[in-house]
Amino acid sequence: MSIMNLAVSGMSANSNWLTTISQNVANANTSGYKDVETEFTALVDQSDGSQSQVAGVTTSMRSLNALQGQDQTTSTPTDLSVQGAGFFVVSNAGGNICFTRNGSFVADASGNLVNSAGYYLMGASLQGGAPTGSISSLAGLTKVNVAAAGEAATPSTTAKFTANLPSTATAIAAANLPSTNSAGDQYTAETSVVAYDNLGAPHTINLYFSNTGANTWEVDAYDASTAAAGGGFPYSSGPLATQALTFNPNNGALASGSPLVIPVPGGQNLTMDLSTTTQLASSFAVNSSTINGSAPGGMTGITISQNGTLSFQTGDGSSTAAYEIPLVNVPSPDNLTSVVGEAYQANYQSGPAQVGVAGTGGLGTINSSSLESSTVDLATELTNMIQAQSSYEANSKVFQTGAKLLDVLNQLQP
Q1: Which terminal residue of the chain, N or C, has fewer Cβ atoms less than 10 Å from its own Cβ?
Q2: What is the DSSP string of 45-61?
Q3: Burial call 54-65: b when 16+ CB within 10 Å, e when fewer
């Protein structure tokens, strides 16, 4: 009977091995899938010197979660892969937190990013001015939603302005400068820029440049909507910003007065870089003027950086950080508990989950428009299949031999 029990133990173990092989082969093309191996363990043998009791073999399955699959480039920016250690934090429909390397995320009908196994990507919201790089726990994470990528407005915060101011200009008396906001105010040159407030409404900002003496100028910014009837001075309210500019008399470069900070009505402070403005012996000319910000509906898509910052892109080339996608790792990734859909949960053998910003604290980086391929090697799996089959057949022969011995014993005459 011991012979037969041992043979059954061996057949059962090799059957489990074949099951694992089948699982690996079936998921050879599944994104983020980690190869699973079968470990054989001899059960305790007992012997008193004259007789022995053998218990056979048992098996256990272990997912090799620390293996790195190859990156496959895609055309979808929400396809993500981890280069290095770590897992994406996801949740199922019931809100249970899990970890996965399957980064095939797409937006569902509500705009939530969900992967092919039905798990929602979790991240820290940066909307409303939340600081970046501060993720230290799973608490407070929310579903990453990109529905606002086509609706949000981006307020103007930075600008670059380059112009030439004529060095031959006549100085204007202090009593007549635009900063006094009087009907008789005078100025050397005037131009306008358009900035956006927090709701995406455009605001025209009138800029007045006035020569105040040798190599000195004054720049004044006014809200065009407050101009007098027919335009110009006096405005119904004073200047948004006033600043003195000083130029180097030897080369005409700006020596001081940059940047000019303009509070946009209903918006943010607009920091305007004037450092490349010059004072040369030529007429007033605006060489370049760029400003960020956009009206609602100006979003053109999303980008995800290697540290996990998801940003909404606007038509003017600027971006707004919306979410920070963290990574999580455990001391022993291979001991994580597997759950359906290529996901895992921490347990006492794997150790506690440690969450943080991608690229810090030993965590890997996040690649956008990329998926991690399965770590299954088909050639190895097919070789293992032949070995498992041969071992199963050998154990079945042992079982048949044991059955024949019992048959012989049963036929012995007393």
Answers
A1: C
A2: PEE-SS-EE---EEEEE
A3: bebbebeeebeb
Q: What is the pTM of this model?
A: 0.64
pLDDT greater than 90 at residue 128: no
Task: Show me where the domains of the chain are located.
Answer: 2-64+375-411, 71-152+298-372, 158-291
Query: Considering only 5-9, 71-75, 173-177, 255-259, which range has the smallest mean pLDDT?
Result: 5-9
User: For 200-225, what is the mean pLDDT?
Assistant: 96
Six-digit token string for 185:
């105010």
Which residues lie below 8 Å from residue 361, measured CB to CB, with a gap of 6+? 354
- Correct CATH for 158-291 of 3.40.1440.10, 3.30.1330.40, 2.40.50.1020, 2.60.98.20: 2.60.98.20
Place of tokens 């794997």: 350
Q: How confident is the model at residue 293 (pLDDT cuts 50, 70, 90)?
A: confident
**Residue 178 confidence class, pLDDT cut points 50, 70, 90:** very high
pLDDT tens digit sequence for 231-259: 889 999 999 999 999 999 999 999 999 99
**Structure tokens, 256:** 């001081």
Q: How far is CA 209 from CA 192, 215, 277, 303, in A?
A: 11, 13, 12, 39
Contacts of residue 363, Cβ cutoff 8 Å, sequence gap at least 6: 84, 85, 86, 327, 329, 356, 357
C-alpha separations of 382 from 21, 63, 385, 400 in Å: 8, 18, 5, 27
User: What number is the average pLDDT over the span 377-396?
Assistant: 93
Of residues 259 and 402, more confidence is placed in 259
Contact in structure between 43 and 2 (CB atoms under 8 Å)? no
pLDDT at 133 over 90: no
Confirm if 296 and 311 have CB atoms less than 8 A apart: no
Burial class (CB in 10 A: 0-12, 13-18, 19+), 323: buried
Q: Do residues 218 and 245 make contact, with C-beta atoms less than 8 angstroms apart? A: yes
Give CA–CA dist 90/88, Å, rounded.
6
Average pLDDT in the chain: 90
Phi, psi (deg, nearest 5) at residue 136: -135, -5
Say whether 159 sits in a helix, a strand or coil.
strand
Longest CA pairwise span in the chain (Å): 136
Pick from 154, 99, 95, 172: which is nearest to 336 by CA?
Answer: 99
Cis peptide before 234 (omega within 30 of 0): yes
